[in-house]
Design brief:
- The chain is an all-beta fold.
- The chain has no helices and 11 strands.
- Strand 7 and strand 8 form a beta hairpin.
- It is globular.
- It starts with a strand and ends with a strand.
- 34% of the residues are buried.
Length: 123
């Protein structure tokens, strides 16, 4: 499945961004999907995931500020980011894997990746 992210950009701390990830095929709840981010010099980390049961998962650092959702009719995954912090800056990637993923934030568990969208937060 081909994934294309959009919605990144520059924002002030405390602001909001809304990221989208369009899938090239109908993913429904057959796919576990997730958002990862990677800052320069750091490892790629999972920030939010949604599994085949519709359950959502979040990294501790983003709980209460990020919301992941999916629109199956539009084959699109979303990430609402509120109360932005400078440490939220990085390249945000969408990932998808058919079926279950053992550990939602293990990037090795995902075969399908987008090219990313850049988020830059200034203080």
């Amino acid at each position: 499945v081909h994934l294309v992210e959009s919605g990144g950009g520059s924002a002030q701390a405390g602001g909001s961004l809304y990221l989208s990830c369009a899938a090239s095929k109908n993913v429904n709840y057959d796919y576990t999907m997730a958002w990862f981010r990677q800052a320069p010099g750091k490892e790629r980390e999972g920030v939010a995931g949604i599994d085949i049961y519709g359950d959502t998962h979040y990294a501790d650092s983003v709980k209460g500020r990020f919301t992941i959702s999916r629109d199956n009719a539009k084959n699109t995954l979303f990430l609402q980011i509120n109360s932005l912090k400078p440490e939220d800056s990085g390249m945000y990637y969408c990932a998808a894997e058919y079926g279950r993923v053992r550990v939602w934030d293990d990037y090795g568990g995902y075969e399908n990746w987008g090219r990313g969208t850049q988020v830059t937060v200034s203080s």
